[in-house]
Each structure stands twice: as C-alpha cells, then as structure tokens.
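Notes to self after the call with IL:
- keep both proteins in one doc
- input above output, always
- annotate only the second one for now

Protein 1:
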Amino acid sequence: MMDLYKKRNSNVEWLRIIAMLFIILHHMLSQGFSFCQNPQPSLNLAFLQTFNSLGNFGNKIFIMISGYFLFNSKFSIKKIISVWLELFIYSFGLSLILYIFNIQIYGVLENGFCFTRILQKRDFRLTELAFSAMPFLTGQNWFLTSYLVFLFFVPFLNELISHLDIKKHFLLNILCFFLFNLVQLIPFSDVYVLNNYSSFFQMFFLGSFLKKYPEVFSKKNRKIMFSIGILLPLLYYIFRFLLLNHYHYYDAVPESLYYFLLSAFGYDTLFIISAFCLMAGILAFQERHSILVNLIASSTFGVYLLHNHNYFRRNIWFDFCHLQDHFQKNDFIFHTLISVLLVFIACTLIDFLRKLLLASLCDKLAIKVEVTLNKLLSAKKVAESTDV
C-alpha cells in the first residue's frame, strides 16, 4: 500500500487537496447559516455570497483528476465495491451514532436567505437511519452516487477514446464544451441542461486527452496554461466580490449580470477552462513524491463523505464551528478559513482511523464479492456454451 503512495505525483495530489478545501468552504457557506431576513450589508455578507460557489470549481478539479487517471484504467468490481463500502460506512455508521446517543440534528423548516435554510433542532428519526443505509438510492450524496454509476461507463469510454485520433478527440471536447457550457449561456436554453453525469463525461474526455497526448502542449505552454488556470478564477472572484459588495444581495444584481456572472450557467464555463488549464499545467512540473501529501490526498473521499453527511453536516457548522455567532464579527473571514482547515484535518484523521481499523476487512469483503461475481459470470458462460 505504501508503494502506491510513493508512486503518485504529489503535484496532482496537492491539487486534489486544494479542491477538497474549496468544497468544504462551499458547504460551510451554503449550509452553515440560518437567516430569516436579509442580513445587513457588510464585507462578511459579500464574502459569504462570493465564495459559496467555490465548491463548483472544486468539483470540476476533482472530476478532472479522476478523468485523467481513469483513462486506460482496468475495470475493477473490487474498486466499485470498496467505494460503495466507504460510502455506506460513513452514511450509516454516523447515523447509527446519532440514533444510539439520541443526538439532535437540524431539521429544515423553510428556505432562507442566500440558499440557506431556516432550521430547528429536532430528534433524529428511525426512518432517517433506514435511509442512511441506502445512500446510493435516496440521493443523499449525489457526487459519490454519480461517481459510482459513472465507473460502469468507464470501460466503454476507454474503448471509444482508444479508437479516436487526436483530431476527433479534440473535436469531441469542442462539441461537449459547446453543448454543455456555451449553449447554456443562452437564456431559455434549458433543453440543453443535462444532469450530474455531464461533468463526469466531459471531464473524462478532457482528462483522457491530456493523458493520451502528453506532448500536445509544450512545457512552456503548459506553464502558461497553469497561470491562466489560477488567474481566471482569481479575477472572477475579485470581480464577483466587488459586484456583490456594491449590490449587497443577489436579487439586487441586474438580471443580465446575474445570469452571466453569478449563476452556475456563467461560472461553469470558466471553471471548466480553469480546471483543464490547472491539470495541464500541473503535469508540466517536475514530479514530486511525498508519502505524507499522497496519504492525506487519499482520504479526500472520506473527508467529503464525513463533512457532508446528509443529517449531521449542519451540526458541524452550527455546534462546532459556530459560524452564525461570528457572522457579525470582524474575525468572521479568518474564523471561516480556520474552520475549513480544522474540519479538513479532523475528517482526515477520522478517515485514517477508518483505514486502520476497517480497510483490511473491507478489502477482503470487496475481493470476495468480486470473486463470487466472476464465478457466477464464468458459470453462466459455460452454461451458454453447453447449450449451444
């Protein structure tokens, strides 16, 4: 196992860690508040409304990295079972703790300001414990569920990409960018709005392009692309912050500006470009291999599942981070950033513990399921050949 951590490119793993920090900040700002009325205009309010979209950028980076490594990867039932087990352990395990120790959670009463919810503490229900045992069926975690489903498409996508030359592969990426991003910038083009899987397919095609044609961009051009990947979102968020600091509230921003600059239709396009440029640029730098960095990055799935648990997540922001209490204070931005770091560290340590206690058992179980399925498929093939 340690050999695997030694081999990974730590530059890419750093990018994975940063993407997860972006996602945590997004969840913190979008779930950690309960406003009955519009809060008073302030720098803190502008910060909240500006960076609560950063998770979209983090997701794009995360999926880009996955797309890069999944190209030419071997299809593995064991891997799918392992990811499913991790999802189940965190979903059901944490819910079981809530139920046994009668820990109250934050129930949603109604919608609030800026995508927040009006909340009230209540008891954890037995039905919610049952739903936690089926996280892949109840839509409690769209990212991991979508990722698991997407893994079944990867062998077919690899077969497709292996038969494309560079020109056709390039045109495929242009087509996806046009349909999934540019067309959506046109108002009332809802017919082209696809679903959660669109990003996975698009990022796979982009990531596989970088992996299949490593020499298509020179080192110099890749480093320029890396700079673009940093500057584009940086300039966007500076402008977004100034815009929201001026207008104070989303609904006060002129509709045209909101649609192209503040809505997902607008920044999605920019984030796709930025994620691609960052990944291309990272691959241009000399590889570094840090076991510690790679070990931490290997727990980002666990961090995602822990901090965004369907029922416990708001307890983290309200009861442990106390975001609401700091919103009107001068230390709000500093407190928020420190909280992101502490949540990341705490979840990483918990995931290390899970690996230490359960990884071996889960690995054996995944292998057993894989062997059983292979035997069943082999028996079916033998039966079919005998019938013939």
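Protein 2 (the one to annotate):
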Amino acid sequence: MLDKVALFSSLSPDDVATLERHTKTKRYRKNTVIMEKGDESAALYVLVSGKVRVYVADEEGKEVVLNVCDEPGSHFGELALLRDTTRTASVMTLEDSQFLIISKPDFRKCLADHPEIALDIIGALVDQVSNLTERVSALALNDVYGRLAATLKDIAREEDGRLITQALTQQELAQMIGASREMVSRIFKELKAGDYIHLEDKRIVLNKKLPARW
C-alpha cells in the first residue's frame, strides 16, 4: 500500500517494505471522528479502504469541508508530525474505513534515513498551497455556481478518457463550497438537463466543458 503514497515515491521497494513493517492497521466504523483539530499529533494515516471527510468546524458546529478522500493511498497528518504542532483539521469516516498508521518516531526515522523524502513532501505542500489558493479565490470571488464549477473541475480526475470525481453527495459538495444543498441540487438539475454532467454511482462525470455562467 505505501508504494501508492506520493510522499514515499522516492523510496526503493526494499525501503518501502521496511517502513511498512512498522505500520499498524486499524479499522474505524462509519461516522467515527478519528482525529480532531487541536489534537496532539502522533501518527500519519494512510487510507487503505473506505472514505473520509477532512473538515474544520467552529464552536457552533458550522463546518467547512476541505476534502473528501476515498482513494487508497490518500494520507493526512504529516504536517503535524513535521512541525511538532497540533492537528490543523478534523477527519471523520463516511464509510467503514481501514488505515495504515505510521507513528511519529517511525516517520521521523524514515525521514532522517531518506532525506530525499523531504523533496516529495515539499512538492505535496506546494500542490496543497496552490489548490487552497485557488479554492479561497473561488470562494471569495465567485457566486455559488462559479464555486461549484471550480470545485468540480478541481477534484475531477481523468479515468478511461473521461473526467470523473469520487463519490460525493450534494450535501458534501455544498459543505465544500459554502452553499445550501438545495442550491447545489438546482444547479445539478440544470447541468444534467444540458448534458454537461451525469452521475454514475454517486460519482460525477463531466461530459463536456462546464458553462462559464449559470
């Protein structure tokens, strides 16, 4: 599994195998909060199977969804391990999920033994900063449709010659763009009527370039 993790792409197969021998496997039920913003950092989590929501919430329970992950090899928690700080976001399972967990000492030993991993981490951080900058700009400057269109284009990945997202509910998308589920539903209805998108098992397929305006 670890050979699917971008952070460890520079490691040899033997090094990956060595690191994997130090991992622990843990399963969580659906709707389990496995880490909360402000928690002490102790491990890096790698998703083996399932689906999670990465989010931040205020004291009144208002949430902003930062990401929804269902791809094996997705990982989170590395920033807190590197900076000796608390978690910057919360993570909750949306399905029964399984993880490989790498402890802080093992992660840091791997980093010390293989400093080239730092370059992979820097690359991952650059991508994260770029994506967050685009998302903040979209949230600040676009209307609801603009934010939704930008988010769909950002999270869609090419698969068999098509652009397709992971499985997402309209509520999850609404939380990602700071809108109501009802508004997302209205936009979806018209995009489907215009054959811009269609759904396959809750995955959104972008049939063609989305219109500039709604």
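Annotation: The first strand starts at residue 24 and ends at 28. The first helix runs from residue 13 to 20.
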